[in-house]
Structures are given as C-alpha cells and as structure tokens.
Design brief:
about 220 residues; mainly alpha; 7 helices; transmembrane helix
Length: about 220
C-alpha cells in the first residue's frame, strides 16, 4: 500500500513537470484585470468622443445626428488610434504582471512554451486585425466591434492548449458575445466593453484568487 502511494505521488510529480515544460503557466490574473480596466477606459473615451452613452443604441452606420461633428474618415482614424492605444497599454501592463509572477516562481518568461502560445494566438489576431482594417476601409465600422471579439476569442481558444485551460472558458465567452453582437449592432460598443472590459476583469480576478492569492 505504501509503495503504491509512492508510485502515485511519483507519477503525479512527473505529470506536473511535463505539464510545466509544455505549457506556459505564468499568466497572471492581474494581467486580465489591468487589460479589462484599460479596455473600459477606452470604451468610455470612444463614447465621449462620439457623444453618446455606452447604453444608448447607436445607428450602426455611424451617420446619424450624434456624429455630425465627425465624418467617416475621422471616426475611422479615431477608433484605430484608441484601439492601438488600448492594445499597447494592455500588453505593457499584462507583460509587467506576468513577468513579476514568473520571477516569483523562479521561471523565465520567454521559453519554448511561451513562444508556442504567442505563435498560436498571433495568427488569428493578425488575421482579425487585417480583416478589421478592411471593414473600416469600406466604412463597415459597426462590424469591426464584433469581429474583434470573435477573432480574439479564436486566438484565446487556439492558445489555450499551451497555457491554463481556464483560458478556454474566456475564449468561448468572447466568441459567443461577438456573435451576439452581430445581431445587436446598435449596442456594439457596449458588447465590446463587456467583452474586453468586464469579462477580462472577472476572469482575471477568478484566476488571481485561484492560482496566485494562496501563494503570496
């Protein structure tokens, strides 16, 4: 009986080591929280610039009286600028918290598993980014909001096999919300704020208390 327990413990340790070598487990829940807060700030900035509320139904062609102070080109340039700012700030904050967690665990951030994770997510994200630029080019601005959610969800789903499996749940939520937004165009800014803001904060807090809080 004692030997069986030792064998079971040994197998568990081997399995844990194999998982750590093949998956990037240093993602910090605080990265998700910070990204969510930044996304919400970005949504509020867009709402203020377009002079409408997050909970107000928008004309999906972005040409009603609320936007007479901006033409399509100005709206397009403004949205791209805000999106890039949110992306850069979210990446910087996420990198900070992830690097901090990895150092506490005595691990390196840039290794084989993290490279696989980045590559798995990069292809869907890059494809979605180019697709969104095409939508903006043809003034299909309302479609860009759900498309970003859908492709981001696909990127998370593709990368979930190289990191914490909890990421898969977030991926399905992002994809589902993006698909819903396709048929709810008047509230696409709201669904975008929920997807990139609220869901990230909820996910990040759940991951923090599940994996990090007990170790600090």
């Amino acid at each position: 009986m004692h030997e069986s327990r030792e064998h079971l413990q040994t197998l568990t340790e081997i399995r844990s080591l194999m998982e750590r070598s093949s998956k990037f487990l240093s993602l910090s829940g605080l990265s998700g929280v910070s990204a969510g807060v930044i996304a919400l700030i970005g949504a509020i900035v867009v709402s203020a610039r377009l002079q409408t509320g997050l909970f107000t139904a928008l004309r999906h062609d972005y040409s009603d009286a609320n936007y007479t102070h901006m033409n399509h080109q100005e709206v397009r340039q403004f949205l791209v600028t805000v999106a890039l700012a949110v992306l850069v700030l979210a990446l910087l904050s996420g990198s900070y918290f992830t690097v901090r967690k990895a150092r506490r665990q005595g691990q390196t951030v840039w290794n084989t598993s993290s490279q696989r994770l980045v590559w798995a997510m990069l292809v869907p994200l890059a494809t979605g980014g180019v697709f969104c630029l095409a939508l903006l080019q043809y003034n299909l601005i309302w479609l860009a909001f759900p498309v970003t959610l859908i492709f981001y969800g696909l990127a998370l789903l593709n990368g979930s096999k190289y990191t914490l499996r909890d990421v898969e749940s977030l991926a399905y939520c992002e994809i589902g919300l993006g698909l819903l937004s396709l048929f709810w165009p008047g509230y696409n800014l709201l669904t975008w704020a929920v997807g990139f803001g609220v869901l990230h904060i909820v996910y990040g807090l759940a991951m923090y208390f599940k994996y990090e809080r007990t170790t600090e």
